[in-house]
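Aim 2 progress update. The chain analyzed this quarter is reproduced below.
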Amino acid sequence: MSTSFSPPLAFDESRKRGGILNSLLSSDYPRSKALSLILIGIFVVLALTPFLFSGSQPLSTAAKICVFIVLVASFDLLLGYTGIVSFAHTMFFGIGGYGIAIGLERLGATWTSAGIGLLVALALSAVLAVAIGLLSLRVRAIFFSMITLAVASAMAVLASQLSTLTGGEDGLSFQLPYALRPAFRLFAEPVFSVVINGRLVAYYLLFFVSLGMFLLLLRIVNSPFGRVLQAIRENEFRAEALGYRVVAYRTAASVISALAATVAGALMALWLRYNGPDTTLSFSIMIDILLMVVIGGMGTMYGAVIGAALFVLAQSYLQVLMGVGSTALAGIPLLPNLIHPDRWLLWLGALFIISVYAFPGGIVGRLQQSKQ
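Predicted structure tokens:
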């Protein structure tokens, strides 16, 4: 008589959970306990921000972190995984914002209008990304970067001048669908003393879309397609000799990155209920993205999470903390002036220099190395 062995229920359930986690993280684990704890902490805080903190600033900061995680991760797909230095990323970010803004402002505050605006923005971003890729990706290094910078600058000027469509320098303010307005109530009674209104619905829409986009990008970079991109980054001549069409792969990476940035721009516009040249098309945003990638670590999607979280928190609260410190040190010579809130940008730059010196491979790179 033959017997069969069936694993214990606890083991079977553990294996199932591992399979789900493998699927979500594309088998790309943080490979560091400290990094895992940091990432879990960021996820939990972002997920529970409306219930953990009161006031509008913490919620707005958390929303901005979610948007920039997607934006930085999409840029890292180009820079960290493919080796493409592009300065046109904010152009796609702005196209997403203007797509939503124009759709809701011109067609009415409905989900259909938002959907049409987003689809048009995605289509335009895809066409521009393909055009830039086919025309410019054969150009080497700095020349390609200069071409993308010129295209992004031209788009910013165009957005400022087409006032009848984009609102010009003033931008566009618009109404959201009713379910995303502060007057909307999802539940009649508060949940854990928090009123679930349209603002919170908008936040969780942004949170879950950002989470989904991040997991999708993580899946892409850990797919065979992502492996080819990394091979191109390391040695494009060898990749081409192996039979891979380098221009086609780099163009595809540019399109995927552009589409993700477009979604991030749409989310930013939905949250702010406004979009203008300085909000999504400014070159200073491009500099911020570069800083976040370097701080978090290039070539790792988890670096986008940590880099975005740290940088946005510093932007939002460093000036406040310096004001508290300056007041506390009021009786000491020089120190109150040295950490005066007006000098927060100086200290933000100093913190960036220190982080680059201390973590040359980014925070994620250092944490993963320490594990080894």
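The radius of gyration is 23 Å. The chain is about 75% helix and 0% strand. These observations will guide the mutagenesis experiments scheduled for the next reporting period.
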